[in-house]
Write a structure and sequence with these properties.
This protein is of the alpha+beta class and 493 residues long. The chain has helices at 2-40, 45-51, 76-86, 133-136, 269-282, 299-305, 323-327, 348-354, 401-406, 415-421, 458-466; strands at 55-63, 112-122, 128-131, 141-145, 151-160, 165-169, 179-180, 191-196, 204-216, 222-226, 238-241, 245-253, 264-268, 288-289, 292-296, 313-318, 334-338, 341-342, 361-368, 371-378, 380-381, 408-412, 427-432, 446-450, 453-454, 474-480, 483-489. The protein has eleven helices and 27 strands.
């Protein structure tokens, strides 16, 4: 009897020990983690109390006579508002259950009609407010409502369509201004919060995390991507970190369904502040320009030019009379640094130059024909692009090695064409086949050089083509309209 009891007792003690050990382990391993997790859980209440008084509601109005009220079609600005946020056309307001728009009666005073709704935040205590450009663009009247329900008519100080940043001014003092954060300290995975007026619902708070930084969407700026719920009316409101600092302006969403799908974009606050300072000072934004056409440096391009790494901005063309031409930049150059800052991808260069004050003498580093070259360039002011002229017609084409190896049918330039294009020599492209068509060469282009060697005549081009190493890609310098471009072509073996 003792043995079964002893066995039972030993089993009980063993189980008890195991239980205590497991409990201890649970306490040792889980409890601290749980405590740490509890400490790390975001609490947005203090942030809302801190930043909420600085976030405003913005309503825009326009005169009834200024709209085309035909068939109940929404105005262009509101259509753009819906497109930006929903990715679909704005529904027609004249639905069976919807309000009807009526034409204003002639002879009666024009009444301002609601145009749109958005958000903003107070930049300074004396009444400067930042928002999105598309929120206030085209408005006849801008109304700013503070969280304490005070309403002010606002004056548009300036707006910049390129960055979608605008600054408006209200006549008030002692306002609670936001704190501006450091975007460089922002980390992917970090908690962030948005306050705005989605669908006119004022002081709505949503939260999420930073999904990505420097997201290139094809716009002038790279964006902060988040999963914070953003809807129409949030536009222009602040993106806030856990320190209560504004790190971005909520601007866009990505949507295939017409609603929020977990992808939102915010303008980095450092870029927005830079723009706002110019808007407050002059009402407009000045941007630098070089006058170059650039492209990404692919592995193939780097290999053809003897560059060890695919980086920088490839100069495909240089505008005549531009700061780039005056500084001596050439098609085929690869700009590796601007003012000491490394250019990892081609989209970095326009942003760096755009943020440089026109007239600034800046240092650049380029890769040219297998060696590094340091240069200086005086940054010009951004302006509208000039139209490209079409090349004139030519005489009968010639065929030979160029046709077989490069897929090009070429002919000599006439004296009149040389004069018109301001060229000393070159060879005109009359027909294009593979591999030239794959490289983007078009009929009417003028070939200026191959493998960094000038081609003033068809004979020169034929001779150089015959000597090519057909196992490697070769650089080709061409002129298209007023632009000189650089492309890479793989010869037929």
């Amino acid at each position: 009897m003792a043995r079964p009891y002893a066995l039972h007792r030993s089993i009980f003690v063993g189980l008890l020990s195991a239980s205590l050990w497991a409990t201890g382990l649970s306490v040792a391993l889980v409890s601290p983690a749980a405590a740490q997790s509890m400490r790390g859980l975001p609490d947005f209440t203090e942030l809302v109390e801190q930043v909420g008084p600085s976030v405003v509601n913005i309503r825009t109005l326009e005169k009834a006579a200024s709209r085309e009220v035909q068939g109940g079609e929404p105005d262009a600005e509101m259509q753009e508002f819906f497109r930006r946020f929903f990715g679909v056309p704005m529904p027609t307001p004249n639905t069976p259950n919807g309000p009807r728009q009526q034409r204003p009666n002639r002879g009666q005073p024009e009444e301002a009609q609601p145009k749109g709704v958005g958000s903003g935040f107070i930049l300074s205590a004396d009444g400067f407010v930042m928002t999105n450009a598309h929120v206030v663009q085209g408005a006849d009247q801008v109304l700013v409502t503070l969280p304490d329900k005070r309403e002010f008519k606002a004056r548009i100080v300036g707006l910049d369509k390129r960055t979608d940043v605008a600054v408006v001014k209200i006549e008030a003092t002692g306002l609670p201004a936001v704190k501006i954060g450091d975007v460089s300290r922002l980390k992917v995975g970090e908690w962030v919060m948005a306050i705005g007026s989605p669908f006119g619902l004022e002081n709505t708070v949503t939260a999420g995390i930073v999904s990505a930084k420097q997201r290139d969407t094809g716009d002038y700026l790279s964006f902060i991507q988040t999963d914070v719920a953003i809807n129409p009316g949030n536009s222009g409101g602040p993106l806030i970190n856990m320190r209560g600092e504004v790190v971005g302006i909520n601007s866009q969403i990505y949507s295939r369904s017409g609603g929020f799908m977990g992808i939102s974009f915010a303008i980095p606050i450092d870029e927005a502040v830079r723009v706002s300072e110019q808007l407050r000072a002059t009402g407009k934004v000045q941007r630098g320009r070089l006058g170059v056409q650039i492209d990404q440096v692919s592995k193939e391009v780097a290999e053809s030019l003897g560059l060890s790494k695919a980086q920088g901005a490839l100069v495909r063309g240089v505008e005549q009379g531009s700061p780039a031409e005056k500084a001596g930049l050439e098609p085929g150059d690869i700009i590796l640094k601007f003012e000491g800052k490394t250019i990892d991808k081609s989209s970095d260069l326009p942003r760096m130059v755009g943020n440089t004050k026109p007239g600034t003498r800046s240092a650049i580093q380029v890769w040219r024909r297998g060696s590094m070259k340091d240069m200086h360039i005086t940054v010009g002011e951004f302006e509208a692009e000039k139209p490209v002229k079409k090349a004139a017609a030519t005489e009968k084409p010639q065929a030979g090695t160029v046709t077989k190896v490069l897929g090009l049918t070429v002919s000599e330039l006439t004296d009149a064409q040389k004069k018109e294009l301001k060229l000393r020599g070159g060879v005109r492209v009359d027909a294009v086949a593979e591999p030239a068509s794959r490289a983007g060469i078009q009929e009417g282009d003028v070939i200026l050089a191959i493998a960094n060697i000038e081609t003033p005549t068809v004979q020169a081009l034929e001779a150089l083509t015959a000597k090519l190493d057909r196992s490697k890609p070769v650089s080709l310098l061409i002129r298209r309209g007023e632009w000189a471009q650089y492309t890479v072509i793989r010869p037929v073996r």
